[in-house]
Amino acid sequence: MAFAGKYEFEGDENYDDFVKKIGLPSDKVEMGRNCKIVTEVAQNGNDFTWTQHFPGGHTTTNTFTIGKEADMETIGGKKFKATVKMEDGKIVADFPNYRHTAEICGGKLVEISTASGVVYRRTSKRIA
C-alpha cells in the first residue's frame, strides 16, 4: 500500500471523548480540536517518516520501519518504543494507552485510534 503524500485534515469523529479517555492535557486538547493538521508521509518500501504539522509551528515526526522497534512520540509529546506492523494494508501501532491504525481509502488518509472502547477517526484529504 502506497502511503507517501501530503494530507490535510478534513474531519474527525469522537475527538473529545477520545482525548479525555487517554488523559491528554487541556492545552493539547484545545490545540488539536478542529485544527488543520497537515500530515506528510515519506515511504521507501517498509521505511516511513510520518510528520504532522500543527498550526502555530509545532511538528511531530516519527520514523519507523515496518516490523522493527522504533522510538516514537505521541501527540502529547510522550516518548515510547513501539514496533509498527502492517496488517491487511493498514499501518498499526500500539501507543502507550491506545491502538492507532492508518490506511488509504479512496485516496484519503484514514486514521483510527482506539482506547478502552472509545474510537476516534480522523480523515485527511490528499493535497500533494
TrEMBL record:
Name of this protein: Fatty acid binding protein 6
Localization, UniProt: Cytoplasm
Family matches, as InterPro entries: Calycin, Fatty_acid-bd, ILBP
Main location (coarse class): cytoplasm
GO molecular function, one term: lipid binding
Domain Cytosolic fatty-acid binding proteins positions: 5-22
Hydrolase among keywords: no
UniProt-listed PROSITE patterns: FABP
Alphabetized UniProt keyword annotations: Cytoplasm, Lipid-binding, Transport
GO annotation, cellular component aspect: cytoplasm
Record Pfam families: Lipocalin_7 (PF14651)
Family affiliation: Belongs to the calycin superfamily. Fatty-acid binding protein (FABP) family.
Protein source organism: Athene cunicularia
